[in-house]
């Protein structure tokens, strides 16, 4: 795994100054790193913003490593990270928690089970909000409150006012252009430092394939790097849907190619996920010319 980023001294100092002290709470939520940045500035900017308590928004296509990037920040800051996935059925309870009946000395009492937002704020950890543009309009005011610079919200279920502990930080991700997503509401976007997360290419991608997949054959790895560049170009030119260039799918194809022929691996991992025949033919032709 890639852990040595050669960060500038001032950024290493910032990380050391903001690292969470070792305690036993939520150790299992400290994530594993491994993100390979297309440029070191992505990491520098994210670390700088988080160290100042600013929210960051990772914006990029599917399979570009946004979640991996957030996990890497959790690992670098040694901060546990709660996470929320903003599907359409995300409601206030799945953010804040819920009330339930519990027993104490055989007596019934109402207990509040904290959700990811309350836990992250009370414990001063990171909070990852995935696909934040998928949140329902009714849920947005709650999320806006969490992002507010005052870092204070009222828990609608207990009426308790929660002020975030030091260390609380929000990292959100959006997949712009993804089917089913709505453009990010301006008030929401306004509360973030935005970091574009593009697909990695060339040497960086080669390094990632070597360290993260079962494929070892150098020539085949080079061909996959070329295939990825061609796919990304075709997406930019509008010839292919965005997910055709997903690094996630490419890594799957590389893994399978350690056992089965690359062309079949590409078929299973990339081609057969595309909706239009024209697109499938396009990628098959690309694979035929390379492999
Ligand atoms: N730059 C990168 N560095 C490290 N891993 C990467 C990178 N790009 C893609 N990957 C790998 O590709 C896979 C998908 O990455 P990840 O889940 O972080 O993407 P994502 O941008 O969050 O996608 P989605 O929008 O679909 O949630 C993971 O296995 C991840 O390790
Ligand atoms: Mg993700």
TrEMBL record:
Residues 52-201 form the AAA+ ATPase domain. It holds the Pfam family AAA_5. InterPro entries: AAA+_ATPase, ATPase_dyneun-rel_AAA, CbbQ/NirQ/NorQ/GpvN, P-loop_NTPase. It comes from the Bacteria. GO terms for molecular function: ATP binding; ATP hydrolysis activity. PANTHER family: MAGNESIUM-CHELATASE SUBUNIT CHLD (PTHR42759:SF1), MOXR FAMILY PROTEIN (PTHR42759). This is AAA+ ATPase domain-containing protein. The lineage of its organism: Bacteria, Bacillati, Bacillota, Bacilli, Bacillales.
């Amino acid at each position: 795994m890639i852990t040595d980023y050669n960060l500038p001294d001032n950024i290493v100092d910032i990380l050391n100054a903001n690292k969470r002290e070792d305690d036993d709470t939520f150790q299992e939520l400290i994530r594993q790193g491994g993100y390979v940045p297309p440029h070191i500035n992505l990491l520098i900017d994210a670390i700088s913003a988080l160290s100042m308590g600013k929210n960051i928004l990772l914006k990029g296509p599917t399979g570009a490593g946004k979640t991996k990037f957030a996990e890497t920040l959790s690992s670098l800051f040694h901060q546990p990270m709660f996470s929320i996935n903003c599907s359409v059925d995300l409601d206030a309870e799945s953010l804040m928690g819920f009330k339930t009946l519990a027993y104490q000395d055989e007596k019934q009492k109402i207990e509040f089970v904290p959700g990811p937002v309350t836990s992250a704020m009370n414990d001063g950890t990171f909070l990852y909000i995935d696909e934040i543009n998928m949140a329902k309009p009714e849920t947005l005011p709650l999320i806006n409150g969490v992002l507010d610079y005052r870092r204070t919200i009222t828990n609608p279920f207990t009426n308790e006012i929660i002020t975030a502990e030091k260390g609380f930080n929000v990292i959100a991700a959006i997949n712009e252009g993804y089917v089913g997503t709505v453009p990010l509401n301006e008030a929401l976007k306004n509360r973030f430092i935005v970091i574009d997360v593009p697909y990695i290419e060339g040497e960086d991608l080669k390094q990632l394939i070597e360290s993260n997949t079962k494929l070892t054959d150098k020539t085949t790895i080079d061909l996959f790097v070329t295939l990825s560049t061609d796919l990304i170009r075709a997406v930019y030119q509008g010839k292919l849907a965005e997910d055709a260039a997903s690094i996630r799918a490419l890594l799957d194809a590389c893994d399978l190619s350690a056992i089965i022929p690359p062309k079949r691996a590409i078929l299973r991992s990339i081609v057969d996920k595309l909706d239009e025949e024209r697109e499938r033919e396009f990628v098959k032709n690309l694979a035929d010319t390379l492999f």
